[in-house]
Design a protein that fits this description.
The complex is a heterodimer. By secondary structure, chain A is of the alpha/beta class. In chain A, helix 4 packs antiparallel against helix 12 and helix 5 runs antiparallel to helix 6. Chain A contains 13 helices and 30 strands. In chain A, the strands form six sheets. Chain A has an eight-stranded mixed sheet with strand order 17-16-18-19-23-22-21-20. The longest helix of chain A has 20 residues. The two termini of chain A are 59 Å apart. Chain B is of the alpha/beta class. Helices cover 34% and strands 27% of the residues of chain B. Chain B has nine helices and twelve strands. Chain B is elongated and about 90 Å long. Classes of the chains: A alpha/beta, B alpha/beta. At the A-B interface, strand 2, helix 2, helix 3 and helix 13 of A face helix 7, strand 9, strand 10 and helix 8 of B.
């Protein structure tokens, strides 16, 4: 059976050994004694040639008894427990995937290694699981070796922003069967379930980092436009900080460096321009312990403009034109160009995606007092339509190609109709079945948001290349790959730092640049920056360890106490009494016995 | 059982005549109970009160023999002549005066503790008084810095010479050398008072003590601090005669071995005394004087009682 020291702090009792030795060798001062003669004492000089201290050690029975008592006392204090041969446990380590963990990866590894080695001694067999709170990622390690856990930890990279660990912890709790523990490894205080231990090597550190970016074209629509950029830089610490910052561009070797000084908690703004012809640059801040927010890549944005064609000259058409032109990335198409979106009146044929409205000019109708009821649809979700005032909507016959969006008095107020053009191209038409000029629709935010969502859907469906600045890990919707009839669709691949990977629908993790290609043709060029300022704020980071307390509980279940504890206690008492008695009693009685024997 | 007398300060450096006088008085009483074995053995010398080994003029009949010309006619047994017609001489034991050389070891170890110092002086005055009671011719030899003869009158007046006999603390007393230089009388009884705690072999000491056809009695005072020391722990020993020091840690084992060496030392002395026909008795310092004498001196024949 293996041994577990339930209270390793008891090893401090070993300090009693040097203390006893010091008392015997150093603190006991000689007392002077006048004697008749020394020659009899010289006859009893030690026989060996060893050092004087060794002689004292060898000849002092009380010393040996006291040392033995110290050793036995240490043994009792460390509370030895014998691990049962058939004991098993499951230890699940759940790593916090927040990027702030990157700042404490090394100290966390040391702490984790120490704790896991302690746990490995708590049972004869241990099954290890290493998970992370990023539930999209697979299990990092499953096996029977602590070294395997640590190797997997070394290869682990946290990439998420602030998030809840509950799901991963629930998975971990499910893995622990009868005996074991779930250890949540994080860098700050965390509220977790009762059965979960928390381990943190985090600490409050000073951090200054980029907190946000905005880029705008100086000449929108012009191919040779420069780029204005504006970034926020924030001091998250409790002391004033001064940092150097500069702009790195490809081919520019000696960037000009400037200083920025920020008071505790202050957010400053830096602005500049990228000259025409420069598509990419990186703003760099002199480093600190947390490096994710020290680089801010900038991409010259290229927009996908939604081209509008207006074929509704009525008053409602004018209002709709105003609303659509107010949206970003929308332009009125010259007559010669095929539009992406057509605004037309109901009943007119269109060959593109369209917003079709009821033509005005009719008699004034009374407002319909019925409630406006919204379907659960991406275009209408989470919008408040109660205050939309309209006349009774026109009767629109619903087909199986329609998606009703709004209802009023049993009639559809707005719907999305799917059609095919004469050439077989699928189009979607947003039909609004009331006279906009006789309602408050122009002043109603829900309608404007619905139009914005509709335009954005059209924009996302455009297949022309574009560029932008993204947050790490954000979702990126791209139109599905096209395929010629009889061929497989081209694969979407991400090109980053010279490496190609399959596109998973998200912007890659980590700060830098990327290119999204479809069959070798560029679709999106982008810059990725770190945007979760909560992760950059380390004022809440603190060390925490509730693992050891649970280890003791587990040890009680998996081990059995030393059955000879009572004997050791008696032996300690015997040693102490013996040491005391040896000094005061036996020498005298022995001398007396010699005299008695002689007489 | 007599009680122990009060302790007096009688160390070698401070011979207090008044204290010695008190002690002397007590020893006179002790000498009435116990005495040196001067009556036994054969003595020769001038006429005295002790029977000699030859014929003399005492009243103790010894033998009779035929008259030889030249014999003292006063000792002819006329009654025997009347019966037999032959001259027969009647012989009587000779009465002589014993010679006692009292040797006193005045090394500082003899006065290590007040008890041992007092016992030393008690033994000295007991021997002196006992010898005088038996009419012995006593000569006192003080073995201190040098061997000095102390006039009997001064010893009886408790006026011990100080400067001559006091020892130098920086030099060990060579008792054997002093003994060899002492003018001991031929055929005398040498009564030595010494604790015998010297590295000198007992054989050499005994040779010096017995030369010139002498007899020897040795009284060895000792105290409990020597015989049963309560040593424990780190002790810096300082020898009282030479001021030499020795630091060591004393535990049970060391103590036991010291006691064995102490016992062996006196065993050698006893063996030498038996072999050479000398009397040796150790006298403990702590019990009352007569009790201490009975413990060993009586059985060893060094004193007689009754």
């Amino acid at each position: 059976m293996r041994l577990l020291l339930a209270n390793p702090a008891g090893l401090w009792a070993l300090l009693a050994i040097p203390a006893v030795l010091a008392i015997h060798f150093l603190q006991e001062r000689s007392r002077r004694l006048r004697v008749s003669t020394l020659f009899l004492l010289e006859r009893v000089r030690p026989e060996s040639t060893g050092g004087a201290k060794f002689e004292r050690l060898r000849n002092s029975m009380p010393l040996w008894l006291q040392l033995l008592a110290a050793l036995l006392l240490t043994w009792l204090l460390v509370e030895p427990r014998w691990i049962k041969e058939d004991s098993r446990q499951t230890v699940v380590v759940v790593l916090d995937s927040s990027v702030s963990m990157e700042a404490f990866k090394e100290p966390t590894r040391e702490l984790l290694a120490e704790k896991l080695r302690g746990w490995s001694r708590a049972a004869a067999r241990t099954e290890w699981h290493l998970l992370e709170t990023d539930v999209r990622k697979p299990t990092l390690y499953t096996g029977a070796e602590v070294a395997g856990v640590l190797r997997a930890y070394d290869g682990w990279k946290p990439v998420l922003g602030t998030h809840r660990p509950d799901e991963a912890l629930q998975v971990g709790s499910g893995l622990v069967k009868e005996h074991g523990i779930v250890i949540f490894v994080t860098d700050r205080k965390a509220e977790v379930a009762t059965g979960v231990a928390v381990l943190s090597a985090g600490e409050e550190i000073e951090n200054v980092g980029w907190a946000g970016v905005e880029t705008t074209l100086i000449k929108p629509g012009a191919a040779d436009s420069g780029v204005k950029w504006s970034v926020l830089v924030r001091n998250y610490g409790k002391a004033p900080q001064t940092r150097q910052w500069w702009v790195e561009q490809e081919g520019k070797t000696e960037p000009q460096r400037s200083n920025v000084t920020l008071a505790p908690g202050q957010t400053g703004e830096l602005a500049g321009e990228l000259p025409p012809g420069v598509d990419r640059a990186t703003l760099v801040l002199s480093g600190d312990q947390f490096t994710w927010d020290d680089r801010m890549p900038l991409q010259r944005p290229v927009e996908r403009v939604v081209n509008l064609a207006f074929e509704a000259g009525s008053a409602p058409g004018g209002g709709m034109k105003k609303m659509l032109q107010a949206l970003d990335g929308v332009a009125v198409t010259p007559v010669t160009q095929v539009p992406d979106l057509t605004v037309a009146e109901l009943g007119n044929p269109v060959n593109t995606d369209a917003v079709q409205i009821l033509g005005g000019g009719g008699e004034n109708l009374p407002l319909d007092g019925n409630y406006t009821v919204a379907e659960d649809h991406p275009l209408t979700r989470d919008l408040n339509w109660m205050s939309l005032l309209t006349p009774r909507p026109m009767e629109l016959g619903l087909t199986d190609r329609d998606e009703p969006l709004l209802w009023k008095g049993g009639r559809p107020l707005a719907l999305l109709r799917h059609d095919l053009t004469a050439t077989g191209t699928p189009v979607r038409r947003l039909l609004l079945a009331w006279d906009l000029s006789q309602s408050n629709a122009a002043r109603h935010p829900a309608l404007l948001v619905m139009l914005h969502r509709y335009v954005e859907q059209i924009r996302k469906a455009k297949r022309e290349p574009w560029a932008g600045n993204f947050e790490a890990g954000q979702n990126l919707e791209v139109p599905p790959p096209q395929a010629a009839p009889g061929t497989a669709p081209a694969a979407l691949t991400l090109l980053r730092d010279g490496k190609r990977t399959e596109f998973t629908g998200r912007v890659p993790d980590g700060v830098g640049f990327f290119d999204l290609e479809e069959g070798g043709k560029a679709m999106i060029r982008g810059a990725i920056h770190f945007a979760d300022t909560r992760e950059a704020d380390f004022r809440e980071a603190a060390p925490l360890d509730t693992v050891d307390a649970r280890r003791w509980e587990a040890a009680l279940k998996q081990t059995e106490a030393d059955p000879l504890t009572g004997l050791w206690v008696l032996l300690v008492l015997a040693c102490l009494l013996g040491a005391w008695g040896w000094r005061s009693g036996p020498a005298r009685s022995s001398a007396g016995s010699i005299v008695a024997a002689r007489s | 059982m007599s009680t122990a007398p009060p302790q007096m300060d009688l160390t070698a450096a401070d011979f207090q005549p008044a204290a010695l006088a008190t002690l002397h008085q007590r020893m006179k009483g002790a000498a009435a109970v116990a005495r040196l074995p001067l009556r036994s053995g054969h003595w020769s010398g001038v006429a005295g009160s002790v029977l000699g080994q030859g014929t003399g003029s005492s009243i103790d009949f010894q033998d009779q023999r035929p008259y030889i010309p030249g014999d003292d006619p006063r000792h002819i047994n006329w009654q025997a002549y009347a019966r037999t017609g032959n001259y027969t001489m009647k012989l009587y034991r000779q009465e002589v005066t014993p010679k006692v050389d009292l040797l006193l070891d005045l090394s500082p170890s003899m006065f290590l503790t007040p008890a041992k110092a007092q016992r030393t002086w008690e033994v000295v005055y007991f021997c002196l008084e006992s010898a005088l009671r038996l009419g012995a011719a006593v000569r006192i030899h003080a073995l201190g810095r040098d061997a000095v003869d102390v006039p009997l009158e001064r010893a009886l007046a408790h006026d011990w010479p100080r400067g001559e006999v006091s020892t130098n603390l920086n030099a060990k007393v060579d008792v054997a050398g002093l003994l060899e230089r002492s003018p001991l009388r031929a055929g005398s009884l040498r009564v030595m008072v010494s604790d015998l705690l010297s590295e000198t072999p007992p054989e050499r000491m005994m040779n010096a003590l017995l030369h010139g056809k002498g007899r020897a009695l040795v009284f060895a005072p000792f105290c409990i601090e020597e015989a049963h020391p309560a040593w424990d722990g780190n002790i810096e020993f300082e020898e009282c005669e030479s001021a030499l020091r020795d630091k060591r840690r004393v535990d049970k084992d060391i103590l036991v071995r010291y006691l064995r060496a102490y016992q062996m030392h006196f065993s050698l002395w006893r063996e030498q005394a038996v072999r050479r026909g000398a009397g040796l008795a150790r006298v403990a310092a702590e019990p009352p004087f007569l009790v201490a004498l009975r413990a060993e001196a009586l059985s060893a024949g060094v004193v007689e009682m009754g």
